[in-house]
Queue: 2 jobs
Job 1
Amino acid sequence: MGGMLWQLDAGAPDCHKFKDEQDMDTKAIAEQKLKEIEEIAAGWGKLLAREYFPGGPGLDVSLADMEDIVARATKAIVSGAVETMTADQADQLGVQAACPGCGRMCELQRKPRTVAVRGGSADLAEPVGHCPTCRRDFFPSA
Ligand SMILES: [Zn+2]
C-alpha cells in the first residue's frame, strides 16, 4: 500500500529529529499563528451573532439555541478549511505519479471521499492513480 496522504493520526512517530532550538522556534511560530487564527475566528463569531440576531437575541433565546447556531457555523468552518487545505495538497501532487509497484507514470484522478474530522466532516477529492500494468489503484504520497 502506498502512503496515505490524509491519515488523520496526530503527530509523526518521530518528532525528535530537529535540534531543540529549531524545534522551539517552529513551535513558537506555530503557536503565534494559532493565536492569530483564534482572534480571527473570534471575530467571525461576533459577526455571526450579529448576522443571526441583527437586533440582539430576544430574552426567549436560550443558550442551547445559541449553541445550535454556533455548531452549524463551526461545522461549516471545519469543512471549508479542511477541504481547502487538502485540495491545496492534492494540487501539489500534479497530474501524474509513479506507481509504487512498477514505477510507471500514471494519471491521477480525483476520487470523492467524505471523512469525519474533529468538529465536523469534509468532502475530499482524493488523488488516486490506477496502474494498468499492476492493475491496482494507489494513493500517491506527498
Ligand atoms: Zn504498476
Note: The mean pLDDT is 89.
Job 2
Amino acid sequence: MRGDSNARITAPPMRVSPESSPTLPVARHLHMVRYEIRGPLARRAQELERDGYEVIKLNIGNPAAFGFRTPETMRIATIENLSEAEGYCHQKGIFPAREAVVMDTQTQGIAGVTAEDVFIGNGVSELILMTMEALLEPGDEVVMPAPDYPLWTAAVVITGGKPVYYSCRPEAGFIPDPDEIARLVTPRCKALVLINPNNPTGAVYPREVVERFVQIAEENQIVLFSDEIYNRILYDGAQHVPVATLCRDTLCATFGGLSKVYRACGFRTGWVFFSGRKDHATDYLNCLELLASLRLCANVPGQWAVQTALGGVQSIYELTRCADRQLSIVRRQRVRHGAARAPARARRAGVFLQRRLQNAFSGDVPARRGDAAQRLRAHRRTARRMEVGRARYRTSPWATVSR
Ligand SMILES: Cc1ncc(COP(=O)(O)O)c(C=O)c1O
C-alpha cells in the first residue's frame, strides 16, 4: 500500500514483492469506496477458517450457502435453453425475460411499463452502478438510507456523487422519517433511494411512508430509485407496497432480480424497469442503453430462467410461511416465560436473519491468540450448534421445498 490514505481502500490487498517498493497507483475515485461485506470482515473469516473454525457467513446474502436451492423449474428452464444462450443477446436483455418482468409489473398493479422500459443486468449490482453512472455529475447529491446496502453508497461515490443519508433508527422500527428526508433534498440532489424491504434492517415501509417518498421525489422532480429485490420475502403479515404503483409524475426506477426471492444469486440476473414520467428522461435512458451496450449484454443462460421464475406458483411463500410458524412458536415461548411480547413493528422481513446474526456473533469465537483449549471448546460448541441446526433443517418443510 502506498500511504495512509490508501489504507481505506477495501479492494483485495495487492501482492507486492518486497523489492519493488513503488506500487502501482490506484484510481483516486476509489479511495473512499468501501464494501466491508467483501472486505476486511470476509478476510478475517477466511483466517479463522484456516485456523479450523467453521464460520457461518452472513456477510453476503447467499441463499445457496444455507441449502436454499433454486427452484427446479428454473434450473430446467436454464438447461433446456442453453443452446439459445451461447451468443450475445440484445443489450437490454432477451425479450422473453423483459416481457416476463412487464407481466410481473402488471400483477403488482404497476401501470405503463413495456419491454422497452426493462433492462436486464448481471444482477441488480451491475444495474445500480450503471444507473448511477448514467445520472450523476461530480458533486451531485443522492439521498439514501443509513444504514444502506453498501453498494448504493459505493455506486454514488465512484461517480463522484455525494451520498446524503436519512436515518433508519432502531427505536423507530427502522422506518425513516419523511420530514427528515424532505429537509435533506437540496437543489444539488438528483435522486432519492429507498430499499424496501430493507437490507440490512429488514424493515418493510408502510404505505403512508412510501407515499411520502413519492411525494418528495415528485415535488422536487428527482429520480426515485427503489431497490425491491426482497419484495416477496415478507414475514408476519407485512405488506410490501411497490413504489411504482404510486409514482406518476417523476421517473421511477425499480430494481428486482433472481438472487433472493428465487434463490439464484449465482445466475447473476437482475432487472430494472422504469415507470412514472419518462418523457423528459429520454437522454438518460439512452445513456443507460449506451452503458448496457458497452458491456455487450448480461449473462444469457440466467435470463432464460426469468420467465419461469416470475410465472405461476411462488415457492418463496412456502418458505416465509414456514419461518412465520417458527416465529409464532418463539413468541408463544416468550409469552410463556414471561418475556415481553415482540412489538407490533416487528412486522418486518428478515427477522430470522437478524436473530441468526445475533446468535452467530454472540461471542463464541475467541480472539485468535486465545489459548488453544479455549479455541477448541469454542469450535466444538459451534460444530454442535451447526449439527443441531442441520438436523432441524433436515426434518423441517424447508428441506423439501423447491427441490
Ligand atoms: C438490497 C440489495 N440490493 C441489491 C443486492 C444485489 O443483488 P444481485 O445479486 O442481484 O446483484 C443485494 C444483495 O444482497 C441486496 O441486499
Note: Residues 133 and 188 are 16 Å apart (CA to CA).
